[in-house]
Specification:
There is one protein chain. Strands 3-2-1-4-5 form a 5-stranded parallel β-sheet, with helices on both faces. The chain has a 5-stranded antiparallel β-sheet with strand order 10-9-8-13-14. A 4-stranded antiparallel β-sheet has the order 6-7-12-11. α4 (102-117) packs across α5 and α10 (301-319) runs antiparallel to α11 (326-338). The protein is elongated. It is α/β, with parallel strands linked by helices. The chain contains 14 helices and 14 strands.
């Protein structure tokens, strides 16, 4: 949908609309409570389910004055998933930011719709306990600080029993189904599962928790895959050209069939509480594993050390709703610069819950066989190590001499033979 400038009276609310009970009821409920017309905004980021056209029709049937729908899968893969891949983003070392990287994209379209349709307020369906309320509202402020943000569930006491009664009273076109025991958020980068019996961290996940991955204890035959990267982005799989979206989707299928990418985590939420979270991210985990190994070949030693620290900090900042912050913008510049020579092929074996790199090949690799080999043809000048060791160890040598002078030297045990 093209973006246009409007001069309407700003008497509208833009609502992040999923098509489910919560946001469908929110359309007339917000109108009743605020007196403002509602514009529904829906994005396809690879979550599956109903078509955008079906969701659009339902939004209009529930009373939305406009419905803004976008197939954002390629945009999400190209601009958000690939940046997370370049950053090897794994919050608390295991979680590849499934939800955190989709919220800035959704927010960008919410703000765009607010500008296009003359709204002064953006509504979302988050609760007061989650991270996403912060991600949406901080992102809104970062793009357009003049816009207001509200949450019907958090701010207007819109609980599930109220929703159902309201939907029945107003004959809203919503088919009630049995409520899932889990809260699920999913997109092309992965799937997040929480609540229900999982809130007791002693309870093990059951088979019905998982959808993107098969049981790793009963895998099919091992699957060998060759992924080619160009400047940190996958461009071929087994010799076939792929877009970022195609690369993620194919690795979701192949790694998911091997049970790769299951995460069970007690997570430190941004809002200050710990929560038990399950994640499935087969494609993300496999691609990050391959990308990290290619970086091992192609990044200079000190650059690589700094990048590992930057990657960790990038993941924390993006998790903490800082996608549009000056800090992340600056880190992006560093990360993108490091990817200049991250090009080549990684061969991996996928099997039984594990993605194992077994081969690496790159024209821009810093691995030099002639320097590394211990066989004849070795081009490394071993005699140079004598001077290197002397100079490298000189500070500690001088400090040790001082310790000995003042009686603080390292005690050396005396061996006695009986």
């Amino acid at each position: 949908m093209s973006e246009t400038n409007t001069t309407q009276d700003k008497n509208r609310i833009v609502l992040a609309y999923s098509g489910g009970l919560d946001t469908s009821v929110a359309i007339p409920y917000l109108k009743d409570r605020t007196g403002k017309d509602v514009v529904a905004v829906s994005l396809d980021v690879g979550q599956g389910g109903e078509s955008l056209e079906t969701i659009k029709e339902r939004a209009l049937a529930c009373g939305a004055v406009e419905a803004y729908v976008v197939d954002a899968r390629n945009e999400f893969a190209n601009e958000y998933c690939m940046m997370a891949l370049k950053a090897n983003a794994m919050y608390e070392d295991v979680y590849p930011l499934v939800s955190a990287i989709s919220r800035p994209l959704i927010t960008k379209h919410l703000v765009r719709a607010a500008h296009q349709f003359g709204a002064d307020t953006i509504a979302h369906g988050c609760t007061g306990k989650g991270n996403d309320q912060v991600r949406f509202e901080v992102s809104i402020q970062s793009i357009d600080p003049t816009l207001k943000a509200i949450s019907p569930i958090r701010d207007l006491s819109l609980t599930r029993d109220v929703e159902i009664a309201y939907a029945n009273e107003h004959k809203l076109p919503i088919v009630q189904t049995e409520k899932s025991p889990f809260s699920i958020d999913q997109n092309v980068w992965g799937r997040a599962i929480e609540t229900g019996f999982l809130e007791d961290p002693w309870n093990a996940p059951t088979k019905d928790c998982y959808s993107y991955t098969d049981d790793p204890d009963f895998p099919p035959v091992e699957d060998e895959v060759v992924i080619e990267f160009k400047q940190g982005v996958p461009v071929k799989i087994d010799g076939r050209d792929v877009t970022p979206l195609q690369a993620i989707e194919e690795m979701n299928r192949r790694a998911g069939a091997q049970g790769i990418g299951r995460v069970d985590l007690i997570e430190d939420r941004l809002v200050g509480i710990k929560s038990r979270e399950l994640y499935e991210a087969p494609g993300a985990i496999a691609l990050i594993t391959a990308h990290k190994e290619l970086e091992n070949c192609c990044l200079e030693r000190e650059q690589h050390r700094i990048k590992r620290d930057i990657d960790k900090r990038w993941g924390e900042l993006v998790y903490d709703a800082q996608w549009f912050s000056p800090a992340v913008k600056s880190l992006n510049a560093f990360i993108n610069d490091t990817q200049q020579y991250v090009s080549g092929e990684i061969r991996m074996v996928l099997h039984g819950g594990r993605a194992v790199v077994v081969g690496r090949r790159s024209d821009s690799s810093l691995y030099d066989y002639n320097l590394a080999t211990y066989d004849s043809g070795d081009s490394f000048d071993q005699n140079a190590s004598n001077g290197f060791i002397e100079i490298y160890g000189l500070p500690t040598k001088v400090a040790a001499a001082r310790d000995v002078k003042f009686g603080n030297g390292v005690e050396v045990p005396t061996n006695t033979v009986e």
